[in-house]
Structure formats: C-alpha cells, structure tokens
Design goal:
Elements: E1 5-10, H1 12-17, H2 19-32, H3 38-46, E2 50-57, E3 60-71, H4 75-82, H5 92-100, H6 105-108, E4 110-119, H7 128-142, E5 147-153, H8 156-164, E6 168-177, E7 182-190, H9 193-214, H10 223-230, H11 242-252, H12 262-274, H13 281-288, H14 293-300, H15 305-323
Parallel strand pairs: 4-5
Antiparallel strand pairs: 1-2, 2-3, 3-4, 5-7, 6-7
Helix pairs in contact: 10-13, 11-15, 12-13, 13-14
Length: 327
C-alpha cells in the first residue's frame, strides 16, 4: 500500500545528483547480479549510450533496468568487424549475430540491449520487471531503434520470462560462462521493419540449426532447456515418409529394435518437440545429445537401456494413437 508504481527513465546526471538513489540502484544491481562490479557503475554514470529505468513506490526503489544501445556502425567499421580486425567494446549482440551467425545487418541496425534487470526480492512476481521492460521498449520505439535484445546465462525460468515479453532466442554462445556455469543465450525482438526482418530470420535459423548442434557443441545443455528452445521449430526439412512411419510403428509394437532406426527416431523426436511435446528429457539426452546410456539412466532414474527403450515405445505408441483418425 505504498501508492502507485512509478516507472521512469533517468539520465545518468540524475544519479550523479542524488547520492541516495545512486546507492539504492547500486545495491539492487549488486544483490541481483553476481557480475556487477564497481567499474560497471562508473560506466553507468559516464557512458552516454547507457540508459536507466527505475520503478519506485514513493521514494522506495523496487526495480531497475539498465540498457545499452548497440550497433549503428557505418559500412567501413562493419567491414573491419566482419573481417575480424575490429572488436568494438560493448556491442555484444550486434557483433555476435554478425560475426558468428552471419547476420551482417545486425552491425548497422541499432538495438537496445538490456544489460541488467533487477527487482527487489520482496517485490518479485508482481509484474514490476514486465513494467520496466515495457517502458524501455516504448523508449526504444520512440528513438526509432531497430530491436530490443538481451543476453544471459541460459536457464529455463529466464527463457520463459523473456519469451513472455516477446523476445525470441537467436543464438547460444559456444563457451560456458564461468560466472553462470551456462551457455550465454541471446534473445531479440524486432521493433522496426528491418529489425523485425532480422529477428524473424535469426530466430528461424537458430531453431533450424539447433537439433544438429545438440549432438555436438551443445550436448551439455540441460535437456529441458533444449526442449524449450526447440518449441515452434518449422520441421519442413524433417518430413517422415510412409516407410519412416511404418518403422516407428514397428518399434512401438516391439517388433523392431530402436538402434536400427536412430535417424528416424531423431527426426520424429525433433518434430514432437517442435509441437510442444513434454516429458521427453531422457530421449532428448539419448537421441539428440548422444549422452552415454549410463548417464541418461543415472540422471533420470531409469533402470537401464531396456527401460529407456520401453519409454520410447510408449511415447511412439501414444503419438501413433493420437494421430489416428477417430472412428
């Protein structure tokens, strides 16, 4: 009952003038982010590219978003970045999408990247983070920016939060970040026509390539996260023909060994996940990420290879029954 929630954008100068507010902002960011260092806060006050949004009940600070405008490079700098000769500091999303994912236009476009978001622990789950992001998005649109993005240590709950705000995954970093012990996940939402075109293409390509990557560079990704990331994939490239369906039916009936049809099982599994099938973590670990059978069984409390095969048969039989026309 502290009155209505006020959300506003603050220039850095306002923080320089208000020592108490500065202390509150710093405290909130440090409590929420293991990586916030004092040097980040000096940058906050000096960097014209950074913006700060705060949510307050009266004088009490309950949430903060820190955003940085990235990209906007001219053709000459963009060419140097793509040639590997320049790495301008602080343009994480723009450079990652251009250099590692082949979306050169990310360098010339301007994107607001949410660098930090923090809500006071006592005020969480009340929509404050959502309100702050809506304010940041509205500002980005008013400034004619092309996109709204973020990058964080990948985790299923964070992915759910960001996708609920309209951002979609466009890239997973290859290295595991020591601080979060996870791959960095980058998400993007287009705001301009060009930004929407980039985001749509990047999301689509990320989902298209992910099933292959799960067997290699992302074999250590938590299977539940892999499942969340594959939802909604366009599986036009993974059709199942009549012979495939017959093979899957025979596996379901116990007349054929799964090991004789792993490519078909692989395609069926990706298609099932793209349609939102749940509870397939052990099969994802085994067939998409190629975990050793023993690790799958230990992780998911399965009695052994035969029991995992039985799980597969059950899921295939369920899918077959669901796809059969009634009557």
């Amino acid at each position: 009952g502290q009155g209505a929630l006020q959300v506003e954008r603050l220039p850095a100068a306002a923080l320089r003038r208000d020592e108490g507010l500065l202390r509150d902002v710093v405290g909130l960011l440090v409590s929420a982010h293991y990586q916030t260092r004092p040097s980040d806060l000096r940058r906050l006050l000096d960097d014209p590219g950074l913006s700060l949004w705060v949510a307050r009940h009266g004088r009490d600070l309950c949430g903060v978003v820190l955003g940085a405008v990235e990209g906007g490079f001219d053709d000459a700098i963009a060419a140097l970045v793509l040639a590997g000769r320049r790495r301008p500091h602080g343009h994480l999303l723009a450079q990652s999408l251009a250099v590692h994912a082949g979306f050169d236009q990310a360098l010339s476009q301007r994107t607001l990247r949410v660098v930090r978001i923090a809500v006071h622990p006592a005020q969480q789950r009340r929509g404050i983070g959502r309100r702050l992001l809506a304010a940041a998005r509205a500002w980005a649109v008013s400034e004619r920016l092309d996109g709204l993005g973020c990058a964080f240590g990948s985790a299923s709950d964070l992915l759910a939060f960001w996708t609920a705000q309209g951002l979609e995954p466009v890239r997973l970093g290859l290295r595991i970040d020591p601080a979060s012990a996870a791959h960095a996940l980058m998400l993007l939402d287009g705001l301009s026509a060009g930004g929407r075109s980039l985001a749509t293409a990047a999301v689509s390509r990320f989902r298209r390539d992910l099933p292959w990557s799960l067997g290699d560079e992302f074999s250590d990704l938590p299977p539940e996260l892999a499942i969340a990331l594959l939802r909604g994939r366009d599986c036009v490239d993974l059709a199942l023909d009549t012979a495939d369906l017959t093979g899957l039916a025979r596996i379901a009936a116990g007349a054929r060994q799964p090991a004789t049809a792993t490519p078909v099982i692989w395609r069926w599994l990706v298609r099932a996940l793209s349609d939102g099938a749940a509870g397939l973590e052990p099969l994802v670990a085994r067939y998409l990420q190629h975990w050793p059978m023993r690790r799958v069984c230990e992780t998911y409390g399965i009695a052994g290879g035969a029991a995992l095969d039985q799980q597969l048969r059950g899921r295939l039989a369920d899918a077959e029954n669901a796809s059969r026309p009634n009557g």
